[in-house]
What does this fold into?
Amino acid sequence: MSSRAVPGHDGLRSSLYNAFTGKHELFERVLARYIETTTGNQLRILEDERQPAVDRVRALLTAITDQESASFQNGHGRGRLTVNTTMELAARDPETAAVAWGPSRRLVTIRSASPARGESGS
It folds into this structure.
């Protein structure tokens, strides 16, 4: 969406460009905030030690599929911002790759929540 599509766009456009060095910085900040919010929601599920590990991983996958399904039903089923950014930009834009691939607490937490070898998990 262009700033021209927003009523009163002149003030919005100058405010955005005064707050950021350009479109690229604005995009990276939006991406970082999106990842922070998404990761926070997922970590709450994964770090709930009241639940067995397998139930936490199952709850995470259920939450992701429910959210994707709802997005698709509302006409927003084009995938996740992080995944799309990684696939389309990260290979040629190291700064964006650093934001998209930054320290992933999700992977570390999934690994720690995963049942140990030999644990049935059921």
